[in-house]
């Protein structure tokens, strides 16, 4: 009986030892390398079980396998026996299980993990985290886009786990988060050593349209294009290049955002301090056109000092013309200083003031009465515009076109482009107006003809035409018309047909109209005037003489 009990105990102990020593499938077990052959390591996992593992499973990405006979390793027991009676084990799966345990703890504690980038995939890279494979998005590689990731491949470095799912086997990591954290620490340290107004050396890292980023030794500052030089800088690349070392001044530090504003021109003398002394009002200087806009042109007087020539100050004659048609960029021009505003750092310049006013010149060289010749530039409803020397125009009003025709009729005789002559009648320099007269070319014939003729004068005219309503007569080339009622005092003699063309007739001037250029003439008025004069000379109220006797005596006296 005692023997049976002892046999039962022995069997129980034996079964217990079998259960303890037999590895469980699907778990990580320890084994020993007993041989290496044909690119595989033969591992004894206990209970007389051996398995084979490819040597590459013992190597890190890009490295040679480190394994030797006698080494103890952990492997994953997938199956206790295969068709060949060998255990099916995997070093890679053991490393993965171990890695996941380690990574989950690191993820929970927000700790960094070490890994190596070993392959490029769509949208990023794969990273070996010591047995577990993670995805590194392209946007999380660096703080700036990486053009060549070659130097980063196979390099062991820290990563931050952004997301992980063990069930799905997904891990997402970031290298950028590590760099930003390190960069922030370094940035805070560098910024702590900087003060506003301090001069430091930096290296130009990047150039944009609005400025350049300068590395101050771990922290970047923005050098705005307006702070590069006192003069106008169209693009930063005009004076800077990437990789260049420059001396800058710290203008402003934002402690919250860690943004640093830099300046280069602040280390140079401000040319505006001497502008008022160097460029007095009305002084003329040579400058270079740097920029042209719709409202004028900017002219650089010296580096850092620019003035604006407003479009209204560009030309005496070219009105409503774009400045680009008067000057061109980089052209050297003479300008006059019109106004200086030191507070606003503005200089108003004039281009036309460096040239004489063409209306003044014309007034001096063409006084009133001077005959000029020019091309008809424009025809309007109120007259002609004639091109004159100095690129200016003179106007011939309708009333100054002809002595004999109405202006509206006379203007029909002219066409644009005709070359005409005229006389200068008035020059108004202030209003920039020149009045011309075409009808004054031959002088005022009417004024010359009637110069000594006054109202009441008796003149001799020649009959040039007989009409029903009267007769047309001519005096010194000027024609006038005597109506039928003015042909005689007696109605019986108020007959036009009693006159013939070529007859000489004495008439009395009743009106001199300079506007209509007409003489009012009357034979009847002359006869009445002569009768009145004869009565006053040869008769009296108490003489008793008849009118016939008086006129007879007057006629005798006249003879």
Any idea how many domains? 6
Name the CATH superfamily classification of the largest domain.
Nucleic acid-binding proteins
Give the second-level CATH assignment, the architecture of the largest domain.
Beta Barrel
Number of helices: 9
Provide the spatial order of strands within the biggest beta sheet. 3-2-1-4-5
State the name of the first-level CATH class of the largest domain: Mainly Beta
> How much of the residues is beta strand, in percent?
35-45%
Structural class: alpha+beta
CATH topology of the largest domain: OB fold (Dihydrolipoamide Acetyltransferase, E2P)
Please tag this protein with its features.
OB fold (Dihydrolipoamide Acetyltransferase, E2P); five-stranded antiparallel sheet; 559 residues; 6 domains; Ribos_protein_bS1-like; 9 helices; rod-shaped; repeat; single chain; alpha+beta
């Amino acid at each position: 009986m005692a023997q049976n009990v002892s046999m039962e105990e022995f069997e129980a102990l034996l079964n217990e030892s079998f259960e303890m020593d037999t590895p469980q499938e699907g778990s990580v077990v320890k084994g020993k390398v007993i041989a290496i052959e044909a690119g595989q390591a033969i591992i004894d996992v206990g209970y007389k079980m051996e398995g084979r593992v490819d040597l590459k499973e013992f190597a890190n990405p890009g490295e040679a396998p480190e394994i030797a006979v006698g080494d103890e390793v952990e492997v994953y027991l997938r199956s206790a026996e295969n068709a060949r009676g060998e255990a099916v084990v995997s070093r890679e799966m053991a490393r993965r299980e171990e890695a996941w345990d380690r990574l989950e703890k690191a993820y929970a504690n927000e700790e960094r993990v070490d890994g190596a980038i070993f392959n490029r995939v769509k949208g990023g890279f794969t990273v070996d985290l010591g047995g577990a494979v993670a995805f590194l998005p392209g946007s999380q590689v660096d703080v700036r886009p990486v053009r060549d990731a070659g130097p980063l491949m196979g390099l062991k470095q820290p990563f931050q786990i952004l997301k992980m799912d063990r069930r799905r086997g997904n891990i997402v990591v970031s290298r950028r988060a590590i760099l930003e954290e390190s960069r922030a620490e370094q940035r805070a340290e560098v910024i702590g050593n900087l003060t506003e107004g301090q001069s430091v050396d930096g290296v130009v890292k990047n150039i944009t349209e609005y400025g350049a980023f300068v590395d101050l030794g771990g922290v970047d500052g923005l050098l705005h294009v307006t702070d590069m030089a006192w003069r106008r800088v169209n693009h930063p690349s005009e004076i800077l290049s990437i990789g260049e070392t420059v001396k800058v001044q710290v203008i402003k530090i934002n402690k919250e955002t860690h943004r640093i504003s830099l300046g280069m021109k602040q280390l140079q003398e401000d040319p505006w301090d001497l502008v008022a002394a160097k460029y007095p009002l009305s002084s003329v200087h040579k400058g270079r056109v740097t920029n042209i806009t719709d409202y004028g042109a900017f002219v650089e007087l010296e580096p850092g000092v620019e003035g604006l020539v407003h479009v209204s100050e560009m030309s005496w004659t070219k009105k409503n013309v774009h400045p680009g048609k008067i000057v061109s960029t980089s052209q050297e021009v003479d300008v006059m200083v019109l106004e200086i505003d030191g507070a606003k750092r503005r200089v108003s310049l004039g281009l036309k003031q460096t040239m004489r006013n063409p209306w003044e010149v014309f007034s001096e060289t063409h006084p009133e009465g001077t005959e000029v010749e020019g091309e008809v530039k424009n025809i309007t409803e109120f007259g002609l515009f004639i091109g004159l020397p100095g690129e200016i125009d003179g106007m011939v009003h309708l009333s100054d076109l002809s002595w004999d025709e109405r202006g509206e009729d006379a203007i029909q005789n002219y066409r644009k482009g005709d070359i005409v002559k005229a006389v200068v009648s008035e020059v108004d320099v202030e209003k920039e107006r020149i009045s011309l007269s075409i009808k004054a070319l031959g002088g005022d014939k009417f004024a010359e003809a009637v110069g000594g003729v006054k109202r009441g004068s008796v003149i001799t005219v020649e009959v040039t035409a007989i009409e029903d309503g009267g007769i047309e007569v001519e005096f010194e080339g000027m024609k006038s018309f005597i109506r039928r009622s003015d042909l005689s005092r007696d109605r019986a003699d108020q007959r036009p047909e009693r006159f013939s063309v070529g007859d000489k007739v004495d008439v009395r001037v009743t009106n001199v109209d300079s506007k209509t250029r007409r003489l009012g003439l009357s034979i009847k008025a002359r006869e009445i005037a002569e009768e009145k004069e004869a009565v006053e000379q040869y008769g009296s109220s108490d003489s008793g003489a008849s009118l016939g006797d008086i006129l007879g005596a007057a006629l005798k006296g006249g003879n």
